[in-house]
Amino acid sequence: MAAMRAAVAAPRGLRRLFSTTPASSFIPPPPSTAAPVREKAEPSTNLFVSGLSKRTTTERLREAFSQFGEVVNARVVTDRVSGYSKGFGFVRYATIEEAGKGIEGMDGKFLDGWVIFAEYARPRPPPGQPGQPMSPPYGQQ
DNA sequence: GGTGAGCGT
């Protein structure tokens, strides 16, 4: 009789060996389209250029892409403190048409000894909308 | 000092 009580009170430590998650012995399969896959952004006048040489500057980037259209804005992303290029940049054409030609003409090409990759840049969050002043309590006096 | 995938001062 006392053995029954012992069989109920003792096996607590043993239950952990038998009670492994029953319904999830494996990793839950990702529902797809949830992986860190970087899809290409939709066409726009803004281009993302990667694979740049560390010595490639904004001017050279503009020169290279100006062959295929009017470059309205070009910028090589550089570190603010060190001032060195991060190896990628952005190029903005006047029209989407030129942007497409810029990609077709510069993607996979060489620039300063490095193969660069040109693609449409992702949409960026808007800078600052009217209603967000930099100074908080500056209205009442 | 300048690496080597990436999405901006």
UniProtKB/TrEMBL annotation:
One GO location term (cellular component): mitochondrion
GO MF term list: RNA binding
Domain RRM: 45-123
Keywords, comma-separated and alphabetical: RNA-binding
InterPro entries: Nucleotide-bd_a/b_plait_sf, RBD_domain_sf, RRM_dom
Span list, region Disordered: 21-43, 121-141
Position of the signal peptide: none
Gene Ontology terms: biological process: mitochondrial mRNA modification
Pfam family, one: RRM_1
Top-level taxonomic group: Eukaryota
UniProt name for this protein: Organelle RRM domain-containing protein 2, mitochondrial
